[in-house]
Write a structure and sequence with these properties.
Length: about 375
Amino acid sequence: MALRNAPLWLLVLLPVALLDSCDGASSHSMKYFYTGISEPSQGLPHFVAVGYVDDQLFSYYDSNSRQGQPRVSWMEKVEKEDPQYWDRNTRYFRGSEEDFRGNLEILRSRYNQSEGLHTLQRIFGCELQRDGSKGGFEQHGYDGRTFLTFHKETLTWVAPDPQAQITQRKWNADPGWNQGNKVYLEETCIEWIKKYLSYGNETLLRTEPPVVTMSSRTEVEDGMETHVCRVHGFYPREIDASWTRDGEVWLQDTFHGFLAPNADGTYHYWISIRIDPKERGRYRCHVEHDGLQDPLDLELKEPTNSKSNLGLIIGFVVAALFVVGVIAGIAGIVLFIIKRRQDGYRATSTSDKGSSSSDQGSNQPI
């Protein structure tokens, strides 16, 4: 699972950009993002907890409301089956909030920092692949850098710097607690994925086939052609889109866009290629997706409108560069996640890890 080894800042960014890989078989995941900030301003909360099933924000908690809240309609089914669900999870969130406040003070002192804006994150979750394989991860970060990473195979924590190694030694000395984390990631978390898929099957298990369109232009300078294959409106997000030459995947002179969400919950993606027009007939845009009965192989057409197609291609490139710029501004993104509360998009809460919130493991002081 790619998320296990990803930098913490990238994991924090995922709820916003959703830059998951577009290749591979369909899978389902549950991810949790806790964020605490030391000196919030303009009414921003000290602590936010959000939870996602696949790409859907389903629960939310912050230190202003101090109440766990649903963010999707299918969570009503959870409340009917388990009336104490939100009370139980709210108690867990409040405990996590207090832990984050205390840990921020500990870390500020440990790093010998003055008062000011500091951030603490906890990110954890699991993934269930179509073939039945499972994955899980937990990572903690401070001020946008990885602080601790849990290796569930060895039941140990890995620390990148001396300040984090103080906590590493403390947490590694509690094998019972670490075994509980492993059980949650490998068993309880997976059980909750299956539950949520049953509750939200109309949206989480739906399939919508991609609409594939082609555009192209001829380069004035050298007569070469640039072709863009755009894949739009598909769900789930996993898709295999590639250029082929004589039936084989072709990577030379190709450019891949980012997998990105549409407003209606579907996704779009695009790939481009630069070729010699004399070899146009050798290339195809190949697309595979769960919503398609058979793979698509689209032929390249001779460019017909260079100006309009050029504008389309430039638009794609600008969009890609914009996303890259978002990744570069991680510090701003962490605050952006918090500020988007009014939009109902970001921070949600997480503690549905089992029959009781304690099933996700008790928090440990830093």
